Structure formats: C-alpha cells, structure tokens
C-alpha cells in the first residue's frame, strides 16, 4: 500500500513538480466507468513513483536535495483545513490533480497553474506569447482543454489578447478557483484517494513514534 500511494517525492520542489506533473500529462485518458477510474488513479500514483528521480543517480548535489520527502499526518490533515493549504503543498496539489483527472476535469487545475505561472512573467513579449498559448489551450471554444466560462468572460479575455497584461486572466482564474473550491475540493476530501493518504500517513506517524 505504501509503495503505491505514498509518492517518493524529492525534497527539491522543482524536481518534484516535474516528476509529478510530467507523469500526469502523459497518462492515458481513463475509460468512463468506476472500475477504470479506480485503476486509473492507482496507475497514476505508480507512474509518479516511477518518474521520481532516484537519489542514487544524482551527482554533485547537497544530501538534503536528494532526500526523499513524504508528507506527515499533520500535513495531510491540514489539506482539509482549507483549499489554499492543499494547493500550497506540492504533494497535495499533485494528489488533487490526480483526483480531478479521475473526474475528467483536470483542465481546471491546469488552467489555474498556467495562470499562476503567467502572472510571474515580466517580459511583454513572453507575456503575449503565453497569453496566446493559454487562450488556445483553455479559452478558445475549440480548445481540447476548454474550461467552463461564461461568454462575457471569454469575450473580455479575447479582446485583451491584443495588449495582454499580467491580470487579463484574473477573472477567469477566480471563477475556476471558486469552482474547484466549492465543488471538487469537498469531493476530494471524501474521496478514496484522500482517505487512503490519511490512513497511510497516520500509520507512518505511529511507526515513527514506536
């Protein structure tokens, strides 16, 4: 159970994010039935485990950089305190993304993350390029990962593409965040994924104390 559910994530956050999300991006789309969903999220945990860089293959790095990191029971429990705490934790964010994939709405977290990266861009040229990419991937009515937005919000974004600013996706990002917080997040806390994560983390905590 532990080898399947507890991701051997690297202490270095950039390596961890690459390992987690590259596996999610390359995973096959699940067949729409309960048994396939169950197998699919378990397969994603296994994929992440396989994609996580091994500390034995790294060279010339600080020992802590390659230290395998697993969230404690307290950290996993904190994810239930607020949606912000879940998203702020790389492990929690990855688990939530796997859950969204099992519900066929992972485009919401992908869009939210893309907006977070977009707001960090300083170069006007890169900002315009990224804005166009986000629009084509999530906003355009023929986008493969089209998110659920009202006509007015989409129209304003399209108009802003002529002179994109760091805030041109803010309204859409807030709407998607609210959708995840009020709909997907409560279901995640009741999901088998989160319940098993809580169970395994508690077992590990008890083991450390003995």
From TrEMBL:
Residues 82-198 form the RGS domain. SUPFAM superfamilies: Regulator of G-protein signaling, RGS. Gene3D superfamilies: 1.10.196.10, Regulator of G-protein Signalling 4, domain 2. The keyword S-adenosyl-L-methionine does not apply. Keywords: Signal transduction inhibitor. It comes from the Eukaryota. Pfam families: RGS (PF00615). One of its GO terms (biological process) is negative regulation of signal transduction. This is Regulator of G-protein signaling 2-like isoform X1. It comes from Acipenser oxyrinchus oxyrinchus.
């Amino acid at each position: 159970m532990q080898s399947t559910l507890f991701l051997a994530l690297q202490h270095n956050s950039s390596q961890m994010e690459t390992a987690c999300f590259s596996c999610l991006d390359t995973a096959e789309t699940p067949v729409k039935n309960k048994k396939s969903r169950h197998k699919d999220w378990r397969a994603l945990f296994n994929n992440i485990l396989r994609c996580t860089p091994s500390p034995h293959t790294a060279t010339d790095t600080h020992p802590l950089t390659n230290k395998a990191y697993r969230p404690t029971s307290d950290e996993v429990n904190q994810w239930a305190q607020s949606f912000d705490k879940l998203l702020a934790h790389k492990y929690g964010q990855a688990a939530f993304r796997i859950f969204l994939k099992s519900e066929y709405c992972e485009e919401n977290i992908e869009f939210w993350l893309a907006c977070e990266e977009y707001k960090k861009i300083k170069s006007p040229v890169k900002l315009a390029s990224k804005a166009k990419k986000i629009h084509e991937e999530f906003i355009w009515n023929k986008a493969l990962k089209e998110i659920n937005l009202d006509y007015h919000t989409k129209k304003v974004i399209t108009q802003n593409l002529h002179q994109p600013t760091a805030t041109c996706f803010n309204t859409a990002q807030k709407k998607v965040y609210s959708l995840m917080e009020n709909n997907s997040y409560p279901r995640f806390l009741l999901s088998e994924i989160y319940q098993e994560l809580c169970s395994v983390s508690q077992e590990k905590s008890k083991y450390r104390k003995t």
